[in-house]
Prior knowledge:
Elements: H1 2-31, H2 38-75, H3 88-124
Amino acid sequence: MRNARRSQSQLIAIGQDAPWVIASRLGALSRAASAPSARDVGELHRMVEEKWLALGDGWWQMAAQWWQWQAGWWLRPQPWLGPMGDDPLRWWQESMRAGDAVLASGLRPVARTVARNRRRLAGRS
């Protein structure tokens, strides 16, 4: 359950911080629409670049978490093997925890980026 709480808290943090960051950036863009400064142009470039970096980082972390789970999964008894196999309920619960761990590892870079942006943009206001 620990991973589930971690991914839920990351989703909540993203849901709370992302609208603030979007509103802050849209406000800055609307104020600089006619004559953007070098700082505004840099912020525009940063907005695009950081999304790709967070996406790529999250993707790789999710893939690593998935492969780690897959490697361990093949080494444990499977429920379809009958009496020699593992308990099916425990097997499904473990699979759900592994899926949530994959989600949490993918959300980590996004949540970190959004929180950093909120702190940085709040300092400018």
